[in-house]
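Researcher: Please translate sequence to structure tokens.
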Amino acid sequence: MSAQPIAYGDVDHEAALKYAVQLIDHRWAQVIEGRIVLMSPLWDHERIAARIRRQLDQRVDELDCLTGSGNLDLPGSPNWYMPDLAVIPEALALGAAALTPDQTLLVVEVTSESNGDTDRVTKRKRYAQYGAPLYLLADRQRRECTLFAEPHDLGYAVVDGPHPFGTPIRLPEPFGLTLDTTGF
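Model: Translation complete:
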């Protein structure tokens, strides 16, 4: 007598994958286009993220927001991101396992050699599709920054850059400040 195959037709595979990635002990992990990607940022990568965060801190406090690298879910897609930085309204953080990109005020990605194209192409496209109002890309390999604004289904309508590191980057309202990229 042979065993009958078990039918898994009623399983929500997207939810199962996103749940599984959250259970990876003490590791940063993302799901990018259905593929689990473990993250291990280098110190130079973290240095740039920290410089950006420090410049945002005062304004983020004034806006009653917080800055972090929490989970961003992209419902209906096989994607679960952990941006290098995201600015969100603090009230949304209470009890939230994940937010969606449209709930952010700003998303920041700092490229690494292993994921540069993912940040430049895939995440830029997905952040726009899911309504992240501002996406700042700090490209370590190309030594340049680009700010994307006004998201829609096909991408971002406004692209400021790329600008070489050292060029000030103006963040529009609600931030209304200029980032110093010297030393990136």
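Researcher: Any highlights?
Model: Helices lie at 13-22, 43-62, 90-93, 116-129.
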